[in-house]
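re: that chain from earlier
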Amino acid sequence: MLIPNIPDHCLHDKVILLTGAGSGIGKAVAKALAAYGATIVLVGKTTAKLEAVYDDIERQGSPTPAIFPMDFTGASEHDVDELINSIDQTFGRLDGILHNAVHFQGLTPFNAISSELWYATLQINLNTPFLITRTALPLLKQSDTASIVFTTDPVGKKGKAYTGAYGVSKFALEGMAQILAEELEESQVRVNRVEPVEVKTSLTQRIYVGEEVEKLPLPERITATYVYLMSDESRAIKGASIVAQPA
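^ sequence. v structure.
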């Protein structure tokens, strides 16, 4: 899909929750969304990484973000309730969610997947996004126009050997996003998926080695698709799967 020109400040006054915000695609997109005027709720496991993104956003002169550390491995309904209640009490609104947090230990033969790895991967990649989305829906529906975006992966559409629990979780996430998009089709909350091309992140470094990783584009080059889908410029787009190409 060709992404149209995005107006400056197209995200002014919007509050967007972004998971996996401490590194990789999440970090790059958080800074990009903030640059277009959004207030970002930075959610991730490592406080120090979130604080570094917070500082980057402040340095670029964007709206002051918020930090909410959360380890999805042990995240409970109570933890998610606290997150959404905190957003409601602090900002009184929520206009978007980007589900970007992901767990992928590395390529693993199916018979070598431990129960612990299986449950942790599905908890981070599937169960917690479900809890966050379900809990946040009432607040999202109070927005004039809200956007939920899931970061997907080709292995969630066609199985690939050795992707194990990660691949299974991406299949399930793809299905959840499609179901949710249909259920919300007539509402002011739109649901779409972004399938990024391979970019240079810690995740891809577990798949590729050496020079192959160095040749990949940086995450900053694919942020335009996310900005567009979070802006009102895309309010007519619902239930789409868009490949994020480097700008």
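The helical segments are 24-35, 47-59, 77-91, 115-140, 164-183, 202-205, 211-214, 223-230.
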